[in-house]
Design a protein that fits this description.
Elements lengths: L3 E10 L2 E11 L4 E5 L6 H9 L6 E6 L2 E2 L10 E4 L11 H11 L4 H15 L14 H13 L5 E5 L7 H18 L2 E6 L2 H7 L2 E6 L2 E6 L1 H6 L4 H6 L6 E8 L6 E4 L2 E4 L11 E6 L4 E5 L5 E11 L4 E7 L2 E7 L10 E6 L5 E3 L9
Parallel strand pairs: 3-8, 3-9, 6-7, 7-8
Antiparallel strand pairs: 1-2, 1-4, 4-5, 9-10, 11-12, 11-14, 12-13, 14-20, 15-19, 16-17, 16-19, 17-18
Helix pairs in contact: 2-3, 2-4, 3-4
């Protein structure tokens, strides 16, 4: 195991900057997730750690060693790709053992490592099977097992669950979490799925346009987003954003617009601008309630019954809003309802810079 340190790492492809001046420390034994939309630079960052892409500027260390010019095979890392890249003519045992054979590992050691990894992953009965005889989840386990037998300092995962169906993704996500708990190997995991990021990561780096917007624990990222982009990306359903006017200042501020007049409970470090973006998570709305101050009045356009909750979509002052309510709430389409706002969890953002104000 080893700490991975990125210092002012930049990657350019011609005039295009894919990764822009990233610095972060990935602690020894921790599970770190790089998350963001397509094209944000997360896979390019992973490939630079792996040695599959050269840095334009900056430094990468694995442990105490600078690896900028170290070939991938000498970095003591193991990578699991989005496609499993299994050899179709080889059985599971030989797929898992292939890398060890290239390194001329003794046969007895290969057998021991493959057997241990197969038992850990629950595929010991499949060692003589070919990839075509396996399910998608079993193939993914073989790809992970091929990485485990290497006993590397660092695991690198590039969207390994994206080819699986929804139910299997949840199952494999749980298995990866259990696996990391047992092995405690430093892990860097790339995904565009914020649910995977929140459930798997000890820390998550939210990326946008090649820049790390926030690097923190999942709960810190959820509770205290660095900016409007992070707030909107983390959480499902996504945070609601509505324009608001600030009336008064700290201690007696109110947020007003068509559809609401809300007291501001939290104070800002600096005076607030006259106009802000109000952020409210769907789960921080409740109701229906009486039409009174500190409620959000919406015109309901769609409802979705999920069993554990009722999603209510509507318009507030011409802006789209979604609320996650008690599943037994009495809300009808094309009606007007007032929803109670959790005043302790409101977020305010600067409409120009998108920076968090509160």
């Amino acid at each position: 195991m080893a700490q991975v340190t990125l210092t002012n790492v930049t990657k350019k492809f011609g005039d295009f900057t894919a990764v822009n001046d990233i610095s972060m420390e990935i602690e020894d034994g921790k599970f770190t997730v790089l998350v963001g939309p397509s094209g944000c630079g997360k896979t390019t960052t992973l490939r630079m750690v792996a040695g599959l892409e050269e840095l334009t500027v900056g430094e990468i260390r694995i442990g105490e060693r600078v690896v900028n010019r170290v070939p991938p095979k000498d970095r003591d890392i193991a990578m699991v790709f989005q496609n499993y890249a299994l050899y179709p003519h080889m059985d599971v045992f030989n797929n898992m053992a292939f890398g060890l054979k290239l390194r001329k590992t003794p046969k007895d050691e290969i057998k021991r490592r493959v057997a241990e990894a197969a038992e850990l992953l629950g595929i010991e009965s499949k060692l003589k099977s070919k990839p075509r005889e396996l399910s998608g989840g079993q193939r993914q386990r073989v790809a992970v097992g091929r990485a485990i037998v290497r006993d590397p300092k660092v695991f690198l995962f590039d969207e390994p669950l994206s080819n699986l169906d929804a139910k299997l993704r949840v199952q494999m996500r749980t298995e990866l979490e259990q696996l990391h708990h047992k092995l405690q190997t430093t892990t860097i995991y790339v995904t565009h799925d914020q649910v995977e990021a929140m459930t798997l990561g000890d820390r998550i780096a939210v990326m946008r346009a090649g820049i790390v917007q926030q690097y923190a624990s999942p709960q810190q990222t959820y509770d205290h987003p660095a900016n409007q982009f992070v707030a909107g990306f983390i959480g499902s359903p996504a945070m609601n954003f509505v324009d608001a006017n600030v009336v008064g200042q700290n201690g007696s501020s109110r947020l007003q617009s068509d559809g609401f007049d809300i007291a501001l409970q939290r104070t800002a470090a600096e005076p607030l601008p006259e106009r802000v973006i109000l952020g409210i998570r769907p789960e921080d709305l409740a109701g229906p309630a009486a039409d009174e101050p500190n409620t959000l009045r919406i015109h309901v356009t769609v409802t979705e019954q999920l069993g554990h909750s009722l999603l209510v979509y509507g318009e507030c002052g011409g802006q789209q809003v979604v609320a996650s309510l008690d599943p037994h709430s009495k809300v009808e389409v094309d009606s007007d309802v007032s929803l109670t706002v959790n005043l302790d969890t409101l977020h305010l953002f600067d409409p120009e810079s998108e920076a968090t104000l509160i």
